[in-house]
DNA sequence: CAATTTGTTGATAACGTTTTCATTGAGATT
DNA sequence: AATCTCAATGAAAACGTTATCAACAAATTG
């Protein structure tokens, strides 16, 4: 029951280590007879190839790291699950790079590609975790795909969602229901996603000829709590909004809580729309109207794009934009006069 | 800018590779002068030690895998975040073993310890993912800690919560409010946690002299949806329950949704208690009374116990039971006559 | 029948570390 | 002065694979 190496297997089956290796990685180039012998020996001594030996030789780790601000967030968790799923299908392992927004941790995880511990990075952040000079070209970077929070660097593989358009669609929905005083509760304003959604909000307003009122936008941080406190602030306004555009479902969840506490009925007294369409959305009371994000597709595309880079395959489209669509439920209604 | 190895550093600083290695892992045994030289050279050529070279030599990967049924679940996500945090502190990486309850994936991830890819396993499952014979002794197993869903094997390190006692406390709370017809919505009944909670439920009932009514327990699966459908079933009973004990917050969330649809007010018409105290609990309407699980502590203890095994330190207490306490909020109230 | 191709296999050399062991020289002890 | 100790270093041998290259037999071709 001692840990068996490739040499033991070789000896046991009467072939060379090379042949054992071939039997495992290129079965078709070894004769049926020897293959059988080797397989039997492997089974007999319970041999499992040592990853480090192989990796050291091939310079491939078979792992990737996903650098993500907070695994606890349902949106992030959904994507990472999809990534894990796709990675597993192609024999890759996923290292969890939960950073809690700590730049030190981000860099730590990013450095793993230098030490060879991972073959590539999926990055959910707008900050490139490397030091680069202006002369640095894209192909000097390690395999990397950037998702959801675009970083400002041409040529990097990205899988995104059009946050401006999505926000616009969300707000247009409210406008079409007769709302004019539409509050907005943002996520962290240091993220591109939140900025883009704010831009979309403004564009929708402008297009409908509604004047932008800075008092109606309150900054949150994508967390439930912030949705609640922001809503309380908005309700304290002398002229309160008749609808709320929340930049995440979590925020909407907090908002609903605050609205209930204030004795307001959704959607009769006030409409609310969320963003993400997490699994909670459909079960809120009332069921939340929200922008549906294609988590599964995001993960899938991230992994595909990363794999192409790792395997140095040509990539036709380095920038993938996934559709995001409005999921209308019961939390929005025609404005009551 | 080519990737530098230890040999380049050695040449650049005029020492041997051995000294470079020592400078990095045992700085104190190399003279200050050479240390400085080496450090300067390292900095100059941007050297990062190759993980595989080191791991091959030391037979240590510096990684662990956490095998968990579903990262999307807020409870699981909370624990894994804590594990990642603790692991990072001691220089370990966390491989994400999200299995979606697929035994094949469980075994795949478990096998990583055999291939050397990870040094240990944190397992959230009641099934041991190895083939063992009756003669197998504990110290033949790889470093392993089992959490939340106890596996039936003496001597394995475990960090647990007393689900029987916790459930009992939850139900006693309802009983103390005058409830007698208390519905239960279970999680997956193939898990020990759910069975234990059901046991606790029955014990509390028995202790209060309330007869157990099988009609009042409905099987869910820890997901929101199941909470909703289970509640609908319970409400269809000729004599419906006056309180609901939900085996997870997600279930409670689904239950609240169903109750609202049925026009019932919580807690006036029916009380609800959950289990987990996820971040959503406090913001439900009404705020959910629930059993608080110490996610952070669970993760912390898991990692500590695993590390002790990896480093072959003596372990005084192999079985850790963490306290779980009732968090009373607004979803439970005195039974109205 | 000789020449060439094809299909299998083995020997061997890396891959990049760490660690053991031996060596050196300087300072301390007799 | 001769020996001993000790700290600092280097040489070299692993760790367990895989890939290259050469070798050999068998099969095909001219």
Describe this structure in words.
The structure is a homodimer of 337-residue chains. Helix content of chain A is 40%, strand content 16%. The first copy, chain A, has 337 residues and is α/β, with parallel strands linked by helices. Chain A folds into two domains: 17-46 and 60-161 and 297-322, Response regulator (Rossmann fold), CATH 3.40.50.2300; 163-293, 3-Layer(aba) Sandwich (Rossmann fold), CATH 3.40.50. In chain A, helix 10 (249-261) links the parallel strand 8 and strand 9 (271-276). In chain A, helix 9 (224-235) crosses helix 10. The model of chain A has no long low-confidence stretch (mean pLDDT 95). At the A-B interface, helix 4, helix 5, strand 2, helix 6 and helix 9 of A face helix 4, helix 5, strand 2, helix 6 and helix 9 of B. The first copy, chain A, binds a DNA duplex (30 and 30 nucleotides) through residues 5-7, 15-19, 21-22, 25, 29-31, 34, 49-59, 116. Chains A, B: This is LacI family DNA-binding transcriptional regulator. Chains A, B: Keywords: DNA-binding, Repressor, Transcription, Transcription regulation. Chains A, B: It holds the Pfam family Peripla_BP_3. Chains A, B: Residues 4-58 form the HTH lacI-type domain.
């Amino acid at each position: 029951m001692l840990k068996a190496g490739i040499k033991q297997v070789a000896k046991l089956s009467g072939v060379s280590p090379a042949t054992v290796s071939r039997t495992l990685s290129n079965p078709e180039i070894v004769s049926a007879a020897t293959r059988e012998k080797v397989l039997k020996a492997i089974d007999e001594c319970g041999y499992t190839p040592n990853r480090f030996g192989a990796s050291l030789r091939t310079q491939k780790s078979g792992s990737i790291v996903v650098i993500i601000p907070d695994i606890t967030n349902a949106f992030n968790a959904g994507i990472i699950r999809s990534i894990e799923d796709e990675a597993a299908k192609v024999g890759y392992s996923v290292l969890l790079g939960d950073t809690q927004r700590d730049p030190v941790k981000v860099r730590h995880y990013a450095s793993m590609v230098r030490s060879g511990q991972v073959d590539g990075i999926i990055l959910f952040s707008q900050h490139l975790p490397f030091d680069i000079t202006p002369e640095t070209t894209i192909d000097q970077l390690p395999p990397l795909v950037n998702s959801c929070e675009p970083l400002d660097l041409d040529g990097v593989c990205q899988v995104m969602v059009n946050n401006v358009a999505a926000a616009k669609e969300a707000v247009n929905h409210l406008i079409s229901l007769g709302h004019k005083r539409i509050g907005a509760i943002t996520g962290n304003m240091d993220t591109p996603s939140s900025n883009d959604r704010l831009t979309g909000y403004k564009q929708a307003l402008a297009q409908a000829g509604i004047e932008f009122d800075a008092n109606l936008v309150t900054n949150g941080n994508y967390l439930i709590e912030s949705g609640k406190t922001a809503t309380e602030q908005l309700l304290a306004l002398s002229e309160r909004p008749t609808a709320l555009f929340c930049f995440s479902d979590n925020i909407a969840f907090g908002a609903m809580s605050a609205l209930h506490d204030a004795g307001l009925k959704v959607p009769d007294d006030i409409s609310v729309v969320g963003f993400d369409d997490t699994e909670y959305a459909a079960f809120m009371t009332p069921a939340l109207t929200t922008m549906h994000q294609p988590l599964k597709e995001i993960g899938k595309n991230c992994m595909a794009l990363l794999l192409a880079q790792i395997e140095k395959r040509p990539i036709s489209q380095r920038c993938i934009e996934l559709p995001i669509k409005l999921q209308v439920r019961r939390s929005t209604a025609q404005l009551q006069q």
